[in-house]
UniProtKB/TrEMBL annotation:
Pfam families: AA_kinase
GO BP, sorted A to Z: L-arginine biosynthetic process via ornithine
Lineage, highest ranks first: Bacteria, Bacillati, Bacillota, Bacilli, Bacillales
Annotated site residues (Transition state stabilizer) in this chain: 2, 215
Residues that bind substrate: 35-36, 57, 152
Domain (Aspartate/glutamate/uridylate kinase): residue spans on this chain: 1-234
Keyword Kinase found: yes
Localization per record: Cytoplasm
Enzyme class: transferase
Swiss-Prot/TrEMBL catalytic activity: N-acetyl-L-glutamate + ATP = N-acetyl-L-glutamyl 5-phosphate + ADP
Descriptive protein name: Acetylglutamate kinase
Described function: Catalyzes the ATP-dependent phosphorylation of N-acetyl-L-glutamate.
Length: 256
């Protein structure tokens, strides 16, 4: 499951109760989270400038320090706390821990700096945490192959890579929107199912724009190996995770 940082603050306690219920039923959620707004707020307080190129944050070492502090510290532990309040067990870690996420510079690193593309995920470590009865909560900071350089990884990209390397069949993207919207007869409607080809057309036409582009691109990249579909849902919807897993037609399913 990928959970946006801005979405997270607004999630009701029932969302985490639903997660605990699923764990009791033997279905364990692996969470990869973002934290864009909190990072921007902290950068602002510290007077550090940072912009965006195509939805990716321009990252130098100073920005990276803040990214790691906010994601691996503040937000990661907030999610762990909220899960544990329900009586479930959670373990927070970042891609740095146990070489969980290895990365290389993105193709346009000359524009965005220290932003990474995932090359490897230590799936055995995640499986081990799950086997011990914990819900893994992962902050998307990665390491280069030599273990020296840190990389800021887009949370959608990181979640897609983790899902692929774990070999799960479904990835859930929890957002503050009900799904991918399309204007039909002047009204915006949620598309129940959309194919990869249709998404590409909607990006070209401008119907999918801004921060939704990396979301859907990561979803597309995630549909590989055993991952059959990605579901984009609104986290404030009651029992949203259970509904997705029971196939009640909530949100937008992105399929091959």
């Amino acid at each position: 499951m990928k959970c946006g940082g801005s979405t997270l603050a607004a999630l009701p306690s029932s969302f985490f109760e639903d997660m605990r219920q699923l764990q009791d039923e033997g279905i364990v959620t692996v969470i990869v989270h973002g934290g864009g707004p909190a990072i921007s707020e902290t950068l602002g307080k510290l007077g550090i400038e940072s912009g965006f190129v195509n939805g990716l944050r321009v990252t130098n070492e100073a920005v990276l320090d803040v990214v790691e502090m906010v994601l691996s510290g503040q937000i990661n532990k907030e999610i762990v706390r909220r899960i544990q309040l329900t009586g479930a067990a959670a373990l927070g870690l970042s891609g740095v821990d146990g070489h969980l996420i290895e990365a290389k510079p993105v193709a346009n690193s000359h524009e965005v700096g220290l932003v990474g593309d995932v090359t490897k995920v230590n799936a055995e470590l995640i499986q081990g945490i799950v086997n011990m009865g914990y819900i893994p909560v992962i902050a998307p900071v990665g390491l280069g192959a030599d273990g020296g350089q840190r990389y800021n990884i887009n949370a959608d990209t990181a979640a897609g890579a983790v899902a692929s390397h774990l070999g799960v069949e479904q990835m859930v993207v929890v957002t503050d929107v009900p799904g991918i919207m399309k204007t039909v007869d002047g009204e915006k409607q949620v598309l129940p199912v959309v194919s990869v080809a249709e998404i590409e057309e909607m990006i070209v036409s401008g119907e999918i724009y801004g921060g939704m582009i990396p979301k859907v691109r990561a979803a597309i990249a995630c549909i590989q190996g055993k991952v059959q579909e990605v579901v984009i849902v609104n986290g404030s919807e009651p029992n949203v995770l259970s509904k997705v897993l029971k196939g009640t037609g909530i949100g937008t399913r992105i399929v091959r």
